[in-house]
Design brief:
alpha+beta; endopeptidase fold (from Nostoc punctiforme); Elongation Factor Tu (Ef-tu), domain 3; Phage tail proteins - horseshoe like beta roll fold; twelve-stranded antiparallel β-sheet; 10 helices; globular
């Protein structure tokens, strides 16, 4: 190092922002006016001659912490005594970061930017509840050549274990992981079209895209400065590119104006129109054919829809389009044990097998995710006794088709599912299929601050390796919900994953 990063930081003590987060650090970074605590850290590293391969250049605390985790250089509070020059990460009402000056006894001494709108020294007990942990830069003997970090070696070892257990996993995952060493830039471009007018809108903060697996359209929200000459109104189309790749297309449904001169837009993809209700009668149709019928009626654009194979007939009266489609897909699952996902891919409806939606180069473990919450439950959509009822009008009685699991009834009590059926033909088969589907506790895993990957959407399969209380996950898991966040040119994800016992379907 040409200088000590701590000496640089100490030299800045007393510097005050010029109001509204305007500082020389933000001007240097190119984001003057944004929260500047991590820009201060990056600026100090730059002035000290520290390479971005040692301390990341970022304005985002979550991205900075994710970088250290990804490279095996993060230490959690209580398991490590910080040293001079370490980067300390806090989790309060808002994320924060500082530079470790020293530790005296059990007291941590720091230099921090954007603390009471200035650069200042701060002290904390090492046990302080707001401290998450420390980035530990390798200041000395740093090679300019790329090396595999311990973290990557660990990832590769994990994946090799998974590959042995799951023959269906592709060997390409290993090579993909090798390439996933950097946090994506997350440079977002938003283009709005109103008739013949085209606007490239500068998004400021809070850009997020959320996808859920069923019954919900894709949702984009972003905030920008209101410009009167921009005629941006409800119904206008919106295209989002991230790092020059198209990832979202939809239409403005809501505008929210604020007294500070900013406006927030809510945009949905074309699945939003599946909230419409319709009466649909069809006979001997596959689920993909049902989707095509609906798309033609409501002027929706279709891409590739997988042939679902199983044919069925139904009368759907005054039912949402979401429910009509989901009912056809549910019947397909019961008959074929294959799960399909319907989604909008940049303006085109797609239907794929879950097993065809694996995303490689996106390993989720304790080092690549910021926080996780794991839940098991038998409180929702769990049944150990299935009762199907057919009204036999000829006999003037009801035929019952009952399937149960006595073992789980003894453990959980009777959790019964009841449904009336129109034909007895598949009563026994359907009852058995429903029991297989619902007779197991639900496992849900929420992970925040995962390094962003543009290919992850609801319905994707991502490799997850975590110790979760009563079990260890080392498998592909199904993404139930994902929110992509783009802050300060950094891309992270919050994901909810589940199950995994049907992923090879």
């Amino acid at each position: 190092m040409a200088k000590d990063i701590v000496d640089v930081a100490i030299g800045e003590i007393g510097y005050k922002e010029q109001g509204n987060n305007r500082t020389k650090y933000g001007a240097w970074y190119g984001m003057n006016g944004a929260a500047w605590c991590h820009m201060f850290v990056s600026w100090c590293a730059y002035k000290a001659g520290v390479s971005t391969s040692i301390v990341p250049k970022t304005a985002s605390t979550s991205a900075g912490m994710a970088w250290f985790k990804k490279n095996g250089l993060f230490r959690y509070k209580g398991k490590y005594t910080p040293k001079r020059g370490d980067i300390v990460y806090f989790k309060t009402n808002r994320s924060h970061v500082g530079i470790v000056e020293k530790v005296v006894g059990s007291t941590l001494h720091t230099v921090e930017g954007n603390t009471s709108d200035k650069v200042a020294r701060r002290t904390y007990p090492l046990s302080n509840a707001t401290i998450t942990g420390y980035g530990v830069p390798k200041y000395k003997n740093v090679s300019t050549t790329k090396k595999k970090t311990k973290s990557h070696k660990k990832e590769l070892a994990y994946l090799k274990k998974v590959l042995k257990k799951k023959k269906t996993l592709s060997q390409t995952i290993v090579s993909d992981i090798k390439e996933t060493t950097n946090i994506p830039e997350g440079i977002v471009t938003i283009t709005v079209v109103n008739g013949s007018k085209r606007y490239d809108v500068p998004a400021l903060e809070g850009v997020s895209i959320t996808w859920e697996r069923s019954g919900t359209p894709g949702k984009l929200t972003f905030e920008t400065k209101y410009v009167k000459k921009y005629k941006i109104v409800e119904g206008n189309s919106v295209l989002v590119t991230v790092d020059k790749k198209k990832i979202f297309f939809g239409f403005i449904f809501t505008r929210q104006f604020k007294n500070d001169g900013f406006v927030t837009f809510t945009v949905y993809d074309q699945l939003r129109y599946l909230k419409n209700k319709e009466t649909l009668v069809y006979k001997n149709k596959r689920a993909d054919e049902v989707i095509n019928i609906i798309a033609n009626r409501f002027n929706l654009n279709c891409g590739k829809l997988a042939n679902t194979g199983y044919r069925m007939s139904a009368i759907e009266d005054n039912t949402t389009l979401f429910d009509i489609i989901q009912n056809s897909l549910d019947n397909t699952v019961l008959s074929t044990n294959v799960v399909y996902v319907l989604y909008d891919e940049v303006g085109k409806l797609q239907l794929k097998k879950v097993g065809d939606m694996k995303v490689n180069g996106c390993l989720v473990d304790k080092e690549t995710g910021e926080e996780f919450t794991y839940q098991t439950s038998i409180d929702s959509d769990v049944y150990n006794q299935i009762k199907l009822i057919y009204e036999n009008k000829k006999k003037g009685s009801y035929d019952l088709y009952v399937t149960k699991n006595s073992k789980n009834i003894n453990k959980w009590g009777v959790l019964q599912y009841v449904e009336k059926i129109d034909t007895p033909k598949l009563g026994k088969q359907k009852s058995a299929a429903l029991l297989k589907l619902y007779n197991k506790k639900r496992r849900t895993l929420s992970i925040s601050g995962v390094i962003g990957n543009k290919n992850v959407r609801a319905g994707s399969l991502v490799p997850v390796i975590l110790e979760l209380g009563d079990m260890k996950v080392s498998n592909y898991m199904l993404v139930e919900k994902v929110t992509h966040k783009f802050d300060n040119r950094q891309h992270t994800m919050d994901i909810v994953v589940s199950g995994g016992d049907f992923v090879d379907g």
